[in-house]
Structures are given as structure tokens and as C-alpha cells.
Amino acid sequence: MGLARGRALGKVGAAKPEQLGQITAPRPDGRLLWYLCETPDEAGPAPVLAAELADRLDEPVHVLVTPLEEAPLAPAIGAAVVHQLAPGDTAGTVQRFLDHWRPDFCVTVGFPNRPQLLRAAAAADIPLLHAVSSRPHDATARRLPGYLSAFHTCIAGSAAEADMMRAQFKSRNIQIEALGPMTDTVHALGCNEAECDDLARLLGGRPVWLAAEVSGIEPDIMGNAHRKAFRSAHRLLLIVVPHAQEDPVAIARKFEKDGWRVAMRSRQEEPDPDIQVYIADTEGELGLWYRLSPVCFLGGSLDPSGVPTDAYAPAALGSAVLHGQNLGASPSRVVRLRSTGAALLVRNAEELGEAVISLLAPDKAAGMAQSGWATTTESAHVVERLAEVMEAIIDDRDGLV
Hints:
The N terminus is likely disordered. The protein folds into two domains: 203 residues, 3-Deoxy-D-manno-octulosonic-acid transferase, N-terminal domain (Rossmann fold, 3-Layer(aba) Sandwich), CATH 3.40.50.11720; 185 residues, Rossmann fold (3-Layer(aba) Sandwich), CATH 3.40.50. The protein is built from 15 helices and 14 strands. Helix 8 crosses helix 13. By secondary structure, the chain is an alpha/beta fold. A seven-stranded parallel sheet has the order 3-2-1-4-5-6-7, sandwiched between helices. A seven-stranded parallel sheet has the order 10-11-9-8-12-13-14, sandwiched between helices.
């Protein structure tokens, strides 16, 4: 491969099939939102943006994520999107990509170096929208990529960047708004609100902590940590959500063998005042347990072979996050929460128990929870605005406006 072509693919080296425009996944039926970014860490808002647009249109919206950089997506994101590498910026590759995927919209995050691809998308009448993933340090010191002249809407990361866009593209009919960066964000998991209220009344203000999607050796670690914390709070309840591949009955028996009074959700048992460990082993209820637990340990993060559960899900619902050293293949969400004080590293059962004791103080748990909520919802307004613009484009093209 020549040097020029290597640069068109993002770096010199052997190209992957997707980078050559070869088809490695089918196009989903229905509307498709194409999300083009520089790195996989910028892909976090993609499922939320698609869900927001789907809510507005009252129809499914699929999302195709194409980062320039080859690296795994966070599992929670990867499960919700079609993930392909961005195609190289050559005429044949671009045409094969657009002919197959036929996206209804393209949202670029950051400034992916694909000018030919984006100009071809504009020529194919695919509406283009732009946002940034971080606030520019000095928006006046650089010139923006010329391909932005073909865009419908640009969300600037600052007022200075918006002014620079207007000055550079003053002869173009581009909608420019200074709303700040579009950072990683999530929709809060849902739950049965009536059941949540009933369980909250049953718990009656009792101290609670949650171990979410534990696996491997972690039930033993949770038991030892709970014993340490229990000495400081004798009404403390541990809620354990086993990983889907774990045997919840075996986990319950382990806790019972260690002397704990245990109840199981799948047996229609309740976390009554005398229960010390509650096995929450019914599917699809993590949103419920996150709401009821001011402190959450990320299962999989102390299991060397585990896959850590999504850190943003509990943080978005007001739970302080504790995690082990295994952050998985895509650690950006945990790293971001730690940087804002919303997550805390624990290395073993002793440290986990001490952290739970510390967070039994409501003000400390509340401080971490507030930081977590702010981090996970920081760019919700940007997501909502982009979805609003896309809805307006659809209405305009359908002749409704």
C-alpha cells in the first residue's frame, strides 16, 4: 500500500475489509443513523441519540458507528449499535460504503479525516450534522475542515468556535449553535415505578448496597466485604445481581453456608427486615436495584476473567460506583467517572468493605451520586437538539412543515 493510500485509511498498514468498503454486516431495515467519529471512546452518545430520535418519530432508528480508530466499543454501546471501521477516503471505497448502508443521516463527532466520504454523502443528499466531543482549548487558533461547508448543522463546543465557524463559512447556509461538547451519555434504565415505591417502603430507610452482575470469584469477595461492613451497620442489606451466566441458586447457597439469612427474587421472596443478603435474580430489573441502592459495586471488575458491567448505568440513577482493577477492554466510562469523583477503586474485599462503610454516610454517597449524574447527563441537551433538528429535516422532506 502506498503512503498516500495508507493515510486515506487512517494509518499506514494492512487495511481491514470495512476500510476498503467491503460488506461485513447487513444493513438493518428501516431508518439508519450513521455516526462517524475519530475514536471508539466518542461513540457513547450514539445509542442515546438514536433512541431520542426514535421516540420523536415513534419508529425504530438503528445506528451505525464507524470510528476511524480500531478498538473495541464499551459492551453496553456495542450491544446497541452496528460497529464498523470507517471506510477509507478513496472513490471506490466511498461509493461501496454509501451504496450498501444508505444512511438517513450522518452525525460526525470530532473532526474525522474523511473529506471525500463526507462530500460524497452530501452529494447523495444525506443530511450532515456535526458536534465535538470536547471543548476546544483555543478555537481561534485553527482553521476548521473545509468539508464542514457541506453540513446542515454544526454544534460548536464554545461561543468562540461558533464565531470562527460563522466567519469561515459565512457564505454557506449552515445552522451553527454553541451548545458545548457532546460527551458520553446514557438514558437511565427504566423500572416498574410502583414496585420500586413498594420496595422502598419495605426497606424503610435501611442501609443498602448493591453488587451488580457479579461473576466468578466475586460472590466470595462480596460476602467478605459485607461481613466487614455489617459490623458497622447491623441492618445493612446486600443485594446481589448475578451475571447472566452464573447460577443464582449456587450463589444463594454459598451465602447461606456462610451464615447469612438469604432470600431470592425468583422465589417471590422479599427483602424483609431479617434478610441480610437478597439475590435479585430476575432479568431486566437492574434499573430497579440501581434506584434503591445508594452504593453499587460493578460486577466483573474484581473477577480477572469477568466483563465489568456498565459504570454509567448506576451513576445515571444516583448510585455511587465502586469498582475493581479489571476495567475491561473499554475503560473510558469508569475512568471518566473516577476523574469527576463519582467512582472509587477497590482492590479486594477489605477495601470494598471499608468503602461501603464510608459511603453509609449519606452526604458522602450523595456527593458521589451527584457527580455521577452530572457526568452521565452532561450533554443530554446536545443529544436532544440534534434529534430535534433531524426530526425537523424529516418533516420538511415529507412536506409537513
